[in-house]
Amino acid sequence: MKVLIADDSAVVRGLVARWIGEAGFTVVGTAANGRIALEMMARHDPDVVLLDIDMPELDGTQALPLLLARSPGLQVVMMSTLTTRNADISLKCLALGAVDYLAKPESNRGVTTSDAFRIELIERVRVFGAARARRRGPAPAALPGAPAAPAPLPPRPAAPIALRPRMRVAGPPKAFLIGSSTGGPRAVGEVLEKIGAATLRRLPVLIVQHMPPVFTAVFAEHLGARVGLPAAEGKADEPLQPGRIYVAPGGRHMRLHGGGGREPVIRLDDGPPVNFCRPAVDVLFQDAAALFGAATLSVILTGMGSDGTNGARSLVEAGGAVLAQDEATSTVWGMPGSVAKAGLAQAVLPLGELGPALRNLITGQGA
């Protein structure tokens, strides 16, 4: 697994290169700007590029399309500090083909002392490097006379996915929930766009996308512009309204409260992380199961880990419907795969088919 680091800070380049080497991966080069990164591409053909946004001569946004043009399928992770401007740029880069983003601490000292940043960075290199290796296919055949490599073990057959039929419930769903993480910004936008604003005006849309603060507010703005509906971070004590998109704010759990004749409202929670996440999908889904029961429709999209599985179980036990993205179209089949393997999904579908299926469930036409 070969990694190229492009960042204008020599401190960041040195630290990140050391971390990647200690994790067992190969750093094929470090570049102080996008121009040098492009020159290194031709010589080293990396699997993963860690690409800083702000660099001299050729910055990350300018270098990204050129890198992807030279190596289709290259896994590019954008890196930037937590500012509104950089959040906006990072999300635009995802639309241009970057696979993910990583928020950097604001100072070199912060980079040096942040265990969370180091762990997240190594995990992304591991996941996206493996994805690149799968896309490259098997290694080329050995040259004549070279010693034969040991025969690989046969792959284990994939366990069949058991789908759960949905209980027949009178009436349309009263809330639509989405849980997503790595690769989620693009996936969420596509799903909502294919459902369509006319259909989404029937019910509130609540989204937990694993993102840091600042990013979630910008993500909501992007969704609203793309779908044509009001979209913003959820606010404490805000009543749920049909046709509005509520995004869990970074660093806070988004919960629901109501029942007993009271209208449902959003509650924000600073409690401990759940599944190492805050906001967590499980927290929102479990509250929705208690509040809306069988009148809840949900989907789990691409993402690392298993956040959402316990919440999906609560929804299913309450009679709600859970759909999941399939492995082939997921950036990472962690969250949807966990739900699917647990037998909680009513359907496991490619990203392009989820929107129409969800639209049919919202309008009462079935999946």
TrEMBL record:
<dbReference type="InterPro" id="IPR008248">
    <property type="entry name" value="CheB-like"/>
</dbReference>
<dbReference type="InterPro" id="IPR035909">
    <property type="entry name" value="CheB_C"/>
</dbReference>
<dbReference type="InterPro" id="IPR000673">
    <property type="entry name" value="Sig_transdc_resp-reg_Me-estase"/>
</dbReference>
<keyword id="KW-0963">Cytoplasm</keyword>
<dbReference type="InterPro" id="IPR001789">
    <property type="entry name" value="Sig_transdc_resp-reg_receiver"/>
</dbReference>
<feature type="modified residue" description="4-aspartylphosphate">
    <location>
        <position position="52"/>
    </location>
</feature>
<dbReference type="GO" id="GO:0005737">
    <property type="term" value="C:cytoplasm"/>
</dbReference>
<feature type="active site">
    <location>
        <position position="307"/>
    </location>
</feature>
<feature type="domain" description="CheB-type methylesterase">
    <location>
        <begin position="170"/>
        <end position="365"/>
    </location>
</feature>
<protein>
    <recommendedName>
        <fullName>Protein-glutamate methylesterase/protein-glutamine glutaminase</fullName>
        <ecNumber>3.1.1.61</ecNumber>
        <ecNumber>3.5.1.44</ecNumber>
    </recommendedName>
</protein>
<dbReference type="GO" id="GO:0006935">
    <property type="term" value="P:chemotaxis"/>
</dbReference>
<feature type="active site">
    <location>
        <position position="210"/>
    </location>
</feature>
<dbReference type="GO" id="GO:0050568">
    <property type="term" value="F:protein-glutamine glutaminase activity"/>
</dbReference>
<feature type="active site">
    <location>
        <position position="181"/>
    </location>
</feature>
<comment type="similarity">
    <text>Belongs to the CheB family.</text>
</comment>
<keyword id="KW-0378">Hydrolase</keyword>
<dbReference type="Pfam" id="PF00072">
    <property type="entry name" value="Response_reg"/>
</dbReference>
<dbReference type="Pfam" id="PF01339">
    <property type="entry name" value="CheB_methylest"/>
</dbReference>
<keyword id="KW-0597">Phosphoprotein</keyword>
<dbReference type="InterPro" id="IPR011006">
    <property type="entry name" value="CheY-like_superfamily"/>
</dbReference>
<dbReference type="GO" id="GO:0000156">
    <property type="term" value="F:phosphorelay response regulator activity"/>
</dbReference>
<comment type="function">
    <text>Involved in chemotaxis. Part of a chemotaxis signal transduction system that modulates chemotaxis in response to various stimuli. Catalyzes the demethylation of specific methylglutamate residues introduced into the chemoreceptors (methyl-accepting chemotaxis proteins or MCP) by CheR. Also mediates the irreversible deamidation of specific glutamine residues to glutamic acid.</text>
</comment>
<feature type="domain" description="Response regulatory">
    <location>
        <begin position="2"/>
        <end position="119"/>
    </location>
</feature>
<keyword id="KW-0145">Chemotaxis</keyword>
<dbReference type="GO" id="GO:0008984">
    <property type="term" value="F:protein-glutamate methylesterase activity"/>
</dbReference>
